[in-house]
Amino acid sequence: MNWEPWTGCYPHSEGCNNCYFYGPNAKRYGQNEIIKTDKFDWPIRKKKNGEYNIKGDKILATCFATDFFLPEADLMRKEVWAMIKERQDIDFLILTKRIERFYESLPEDWGDGYDNVNIGCTVENQKAADERLPLFLSYPIKRRFVACAPLLEAIDLSKYIHGIDHVSVGGETSKDARVCDYQWVLDIRKQCQDAGKTFWFKNTGSIFKKDGQIEKVNPFKQTTYAKELDINISDGKPLF
Ligand code: SF4
């Protein structure tokens, strides 16, 4: 399940160039102003009988359509941390391209990290990996994943993979999408396999290169196509 407590965003790095939530695409899919959504307090909403609307033992993908560490969300994030703390029975997967804002964005009682928080750092190319992952690994976080998305080139994660629990990879979805080369995906998969990490090939992206051929892939088929290639490495738990 996805939880977007706020909406709106703006570019941070090359991976954002064709983001469909901001700029010219904002009217159709998202919008630029960073504001609460009507699901802002969703994890702690209760029914008339006092039970939470969302039962426990769930995984909530949080801020996958915006950025958790946006400075404009600093006040809202304080409330969100309180909700995350209240729902210890839910695993929150938090995704960001702005991992450098980690310390200034934490709740006071973070300590070594909340048990129910798994933070994901997005890296779209080697430059982003080399800038963000040393920071990411230096922070007190109990569980870490890396999202190589949109994958723009081959990425060598070998210096960092020891500190990462899981890696996901995805191509770019856009009418102006840049190519995602299957060989880059397989390279990252091999790095995960050698290091004993789980791996999820999430989607091919709109322009997918495989066996020397470049094909256009319909947005509704990109996830299924990636799944059919059957290269995921799982530990039996749901991949993300
Ligand atoms: S950080 Fe994510 S949501 Fe924000 S502009 Fe970049 S790609 Fe889009």
Overview of this protein structure:
The protein is an alpha/beta fold and 240 residues long. It folds into 2 domains: 1-122; 131-240, no CATH class. The chain contains 5 helices and 12 strands. Strand 4 (58-62), helix 2 and strand 5 (90-96) form a beta-alpha-beta unit. The protein is globular. The termini are close together. Bound molecules: iron/sulfur cluster. Iron/sulfur cluster binds next to loops.
Give the secondary structure arrangement, pairings included:
Elements: E1 2-3, E2 6-7, H1 26-29, E3 35-36, E4 58-62, H2 74-86, E5 90-96, E6 117-122, H3 126-138, E7 143-148, E8 166-170, E9 180-181, H4 182-195, E10 198-203, E11 207-210, E12 213-216, H5 222-228
Parallel strand pairs: 1-4, 4-5, 5-6, 6-7, 7-8, 8-10, 9-11
Antiparallel strand pairs: 2-3, 11-12
Bound molecules: iron/sulfur cluster.
Features of this protein?
240 residues; alpha/beta; 2 domains; 7-stranded parallel beta sheet; 3-stranded mixed beta sheet; 5 helices; globular; binds iron/sulfur cluster
SSE succession: EEHEEHEEHEEEHEEEH
Estimate nothing, just give the exact number of structural domains. Answer: 2
**Which molecules are bound besides the chains?**
iron/sulfur cluster
As residue ranges, the low-confidence spans are none
Mean pLDDT score, rounded? 95
Largest sheet: 7 strands, parallel
Short note summarizing the structure:
It contains 5 helices and 12 strands.
